[in-house]
Design goal:
Layout lengths: L13 H8 L24 E5 L6 E6 L2 E4 H6 L8 H6 L6 H6 L1 H15 L4 H4 L1 H8 E3 L4 E3 L7 E4 L3 H11 L15 E3 L5 E3 L8 E4 L8 E4 L3 E2 L2 E7 L18 E8 L2 E2 H7 L13 E3 L4 E2 L7 E2 L18 H6 L1 E2 L1 E8 L1 H5 L5 E7 L7 H9 L10 E3 L14 H4 L7 E2 L5 E2 L7 E8 L7 E9 L2
Parallel strand pairs: 6-21, 8-15
Antiparallel strand pairs: 1-2, 1-5, 2-3, 3-4, 6-7, 9-10, 11-14, 12-13, 12-21, 13-15, 13-16, 17-18, 19-20, 19-24, 22-23, 24-25
Helix pairs in contact: 1-5
The protein binds manganese (II) ion.
Length: about 450
């Protein structure tokens, strides 16, 4: 089938990018114009999806639909500067696209925006195009969008670090290195799973403060951690570094991340080398990657350092990062227990926090990671660490919200939770809002405890 279409315009120029973010822009895909959609035409996040029995394909979310990028390429709708990125989307993961860098991916995004906008060339061909190009998000399986070679988890919220430190070390909650060095540990890439994958309660060694010896069994303190995942775009060669001024060029985009944590295993095993089996049994990521281009209107400074705190060392300080290193995201955690599902009750929101409430920016974390010459690769995941604020109701895990189960939460149906029970579903959501911009969202990052 050939539609002999007029190819849409769109390149990587600042003007073309600005046009994709124009709040007046609407799509001929009706669901993209719903006021509460996470995926208006201003977003266009990348994903990988699979129809029944077919190979995985790269897509871009629009409203309730996904654009099949290879189908658009095959119909001659992507051309010129967008061609390299469109060809990279023939792969079954996003790694090849991530490796190309910001400008090729931007050219592809601007052409797709032109194709999908109301009043553009795509609308003229809507009747012939839509069946070949669009697939419902509800009719496909969404996959992990990239092959993740390495996953690193940071600890960038000073509020989380202080609250947790106080429980483990009441006299010495925040260790002296915290305000100098972005703290992180190497996580496990093999157990990163996509939203919707059930999470099995881990077994392990548990030893309470009054136990003479540890015992082995299912974790009694299973928790979630509300985090943001940054996906690495182009990497750096072993032995080279990434200056902070260039960090944005190495970040492909952001997703939501739930760093499931077994607190009893963690308390017993974490010294002296840090998290291990308490963390690596599962980490859930949301399937849609919101690009830095789509997040452009939501860049902002991260929270100011307190008076008396040290200034970042020179390699972690940059004017652009100081002014725009943060992302104005609102992040929420929702819980639905098995009993709530059976009773038809809606999920309840446990917390709402801001991604600007961090001590270190994603750029500072990326630059620090490569500062010793460690090579980052396309598709690597950098977790932000649990996003918690200073105020009540902004804490991004149960450990903090319930003070290690000492102050359990009472749910609307009378159930209580100190930590997670089997059958509990945890859903993370996130969205970006700013004056003069259309709200964009991240979709869901969900998992049920088995
Ligand atoms: Mn974590």
């Amino acid at each position: 089938m050939s539609a002999s279409p007029t190819p849409p315009a769109g390149d990587s120029s600042p003007e073309a990018l600005a046009a994709t973010l124009d709040p007046a822009r609407r799509s001929w895909v009706p669901s993209a114009n719903a006021p509460d959609t996470d995926f208006p035409i201003q977003n266009l996040p990348f994903c990988v999806f699979r129809r029944d029995g077919e190979a995985p394909r790269v897509g871009v979310a629009i409203g309730e639909e996904i654009v099949d990028v290879s189908a658009a390429l095959a119909r001659g709708l992507l051309h010129g500067e967008a061609l390299p990125a469109a060809e990279a989307c023939r792969e079954s993961t996003l790694n090849a696209l991530m490796a190309l860098g910001r400008l090729p991916a931007r050219a592809l995004r601007t052409q797709l925006s032109e194709l999908l906008r109301a009043g553009g060339p795509g609308e003229e061909l809507r009747a012939t195009l839509a069946p070949a190009l669009l697939v419902s998000q509800h009719a496909v399986e969404l996959l992990l969008p990239a092959t993740v070679g390495d996953y690193t988890d940071f600890y960038a919220s000073v509020h989380h670090a202080t609250n947790v430190g106080r429980m483990f070390r009441p006299d010495n909650p925040l260790l002296p290195n915290y305000k100098w060095v972005p703290i992180g540990y190497h996580g496990r890439a093999s157990s990163l799973v996509v939203s919707g994958t059930p999470v099995h309660r881990p077994e392990g060694q548990r030893k309470g403060p009054n136990d003479a010896e540890p015992s082995v069994g299912p974790s009694r303190s299973l928790d979630y951690e509300l985090e943001v995942a940054a996906w690495v775009g182009p990497g750096n060669a072993l032995g080279t570094t990434i200056p902070l001024a260039e960090a944005d060029a190495h970040l492909f985009g952001l997703s939501l991340l739930n760093d499931w944590s077994a607190r009893d295993l963690q308390a017993w095993e974490y010294q002296p080398l840090g998290p291990f089996l308490a963390k690596n049994f599962a980490s859930t990521v949301s399937p849609f990657i919101v690009t830095l281009d789509a997040l452009e209107p939501f860049r902002a400074p991260i929270a100011a350092r307190a008076d008396g705190d040290p200034a970042p060392l020179p390699y972690l300080d940059d004017g652009h990062d100081r002014a725009r290193g943060g992302f104005a995201l609102t992040l929420e955690v929702w819980l639905c227990t098995a009993r709530m599902r059976t009773g038809g009750e809606p999920a309840v929101r446990l917390s709402r926090g801001s991604f600007l409430d961090l001590y270190w920016s994603m750029g500072q974390m990326l630059t620090h990671h490569a500062s010793n010459g460690c090579n980052l690769r396309p598709g690597d995941v950098l977790g932000s660490g649990t996003v918690s604020g200073a105020k009540s109701g902004t804490q991004g895990c149960l450990l903090e919200l319930t003070k290690r189960a000492a102050e359990p939460i009472t749910l609307p149906n009378g159930e209580t939770r100190g930590f997670l029970q089997d059958g509990d579903e945890v859903v993370l959501t996130g969205y970006a809002e700013a004056p003069g911009a259309v709200r964009i969202g991240f979709g869901r990052c969900a998992g049920v405890v088995r």
